[in-house]
Amino acid sequence: MSNALVSGNLRFVMTNASAMLTALGDPTRQSIVDALSREPLAVGELARVLPISRPAVSQHLKVLKEVGLVIDRQEGTRRLYRVDPDALAEVRRHLDAFWERSLAAFEQRTRSEERPDDQDDSRDTP
After folding, report:
1. d(Cα 37, Cα 60) in Å, to the nearest integer?
2. What CA–CA distance (Å, rounded) separates 96 from 107?
3. Which residues of 77-103 are buried (b: 16+ CB within 10 A; e: fewer)?
4. Is the dihedral of CA 108, 109, 111, 116 positive or negative?
5. Which domains are assigned to the chain?
6. What is the DSSP string of the chain?
7. For residue 71, how many other CB atoms are within 10 A of its CB?
8. What are 71-89's pLDDT values in tens digits?
9. What is the pLDDT of residues 91-105, one digit of tens each?
10. Under a CB-based contact definition with an 8 Å cutoff, are residues 69 and 18 in contact?
11. Where would a tag sit more exposed on the chain, N or C end, judged by fewer CB atoms within 10 A?
12. pTM, whole model, 2 decimals?
């Protein structure tokens, strides 16, 4: 589905941040995304900088491509892979929302715990 086209020329952007985060749970895939965030690379170039074989790189790229984190293009006789900035933006939005909810819950919990202490202090004073 990540290769589907919308309006002929616009690529469909998969917005499944959970699947993207799951794919990034693998350290090798993290390394691949890190390398591809610097510059587009072919499978052979990735295999030279990673401690895994070309077929293993291809399998990891397949997973990253399926969740929408990586896109590719044919350039001559080789296929270049790169990170999809729209996908990274989706992951960022997901993480930002997670932290906003977590901080709001922490703030609410902190405030609810402060109130009983304040009431106890007022009973102790004459």
Report:
1. 15
2. 16
3. eeebbebbeebeebbeebeeeeeeeee
4. positive
5. 5-124 (1.10.10.10)
6. -TT-EETTTEEPPP--HHHHHHHTTSHHHHHHHHHHHHS-B-HHHHHHHSSS-HHHHHHHHHHHHHTTSEEEEEETTEEEEEE-HHHHHHHHHHHHHHHHHHHHHHHHHHHHHHHHHHHHHHHH--
7. 20
8. 999 999 999 999 999 999 9
9. 999 999 888 888 888
10. no
11. C
12. 0.71
Q: Determine the Cα–Cα distance for residues 44 and 50; give it in Å rounded to an integer.
A: 10
Are 90 and 15 contacting, i.e. CB atoms less than 8 angstroms apart?
yes
Residue with tokens 């917005």: 15
* Contact in structure between 49 and 35 (CB atoms under 8 Å): yes
**Residue 67 contacts residue 14 (beta carbons within 8 Å):** yes
What are 51's two structure tokens?
């401690």
Sign of CA dihedral 53, 70, 63, 17: positive
User: How far apart, in whole angstroms, are the C-alpha atoms of residue 66 and residue 18?
Assistant: 13
